[in-house]
Design a protein that fits this description.
By secondary structure, the chain is mainly β. The protein is built from one helix and 14 strands. The strands form three sheets. A seven-stranded antiparallel β-sheet has the order 1-2-14-3-4-12-13. The longest helix is centred in the first third of the chain and has 25 residues. The N and C termini lie far apart (46 Å).
Length: 214
């Protein structure tokens, strides 16, 4: 009788482990934020979940290398403007995934002028909320201007700016080609993203959609 109960317990454990692995592979997994590029939306050290089924599956959707051809995506579902996504950099030397907000989808014309986002020749409205303060690990206090930005289709989100005259506050217009996405961090003046060295991100590099913790 004891042997039967022991066998049953091991079977439950094995099934639980298999289900846990399958969920992590195909449904969602935890993602830790390591930078301040998405302030004020996400804090450094925050842990959120990435849902993988939203965009389908590519070689980057799994925690180990899957022999899928570059750019191939199974059950593809296309991201929407304003969503936050986790993705791999096109630079093969990059060790960690990135998390940013999708600003430009295929066909969009994106420009930054004097700190303002211009999308398809339309100045995107933003409303000043007040100041936002953040103390970094070295004890330096950053004071930002915080705005609510109103993207098309009614997607509203908060952004912060040191000023409208920083390095990436003037970027020439670019048309997002088919199969690529334009990402920007909500911390507009302290984010490595599509405005600079990161460039446009191929659809195949997306890992999944980020779900913010409550």
């Amino acid at each position: 009788m004891k042997e039967k109960k022991k066998f049953h317990l091991w079977r439950v454990i094995v099934i639980g482990v298999i289900l846990s692995i399958l969920i992590r592979l195909f449904v969602f997994e935890k993602f830790k934020i390591y930078s301040i590029s998405m302030l004020p939306t996400m804090q450094s050290g925050e842990i959120d979940f990435v849902t993988k089924y939203n965009y389908g599956y590519s070689r980057y959707s799994f925690p180990f290398s899957v022999p899928l051809p570059e750019g191939v995506r199974i059950f593809p579902k296309y991201p929407q403007r304003g969503e936050i996504a986790v993705f791999r950099s096109p630079n093969p030397r990059a060790r960690w995934p990135y998390v940013k907000r999708i600003i430009g989808i295929p066909g969009d014309r994106v420009e930054i002028k004097n700190g303002r986002l211009i999308l398809n020749n339309r100045l995107i409205p933003r409303t000043y909320i007040g100041t936002y303060e953040y103390a970094d690990r070295k004890g330096h206090l950053w004071i930002y201007n915080m705005y609510e930005e109103d993207l098309p289709e009614g997607v509203k989100h908060k952004i912060i700016e040191i000023s409208d005259n920083e390095v990436l506050d003037n970027v020439e217009e670019i048309t997002v080609p088919e199969g690529y996405y334009y990402f920007i961090g909500d911390n507009r003046d302290q984010s490595e993203d599509s405005r600079g060295s990161l460039g446009l991100i191929p659809f195949g590099n997306l890992i999944g959609k980020l779900v913010l913790s409550e």
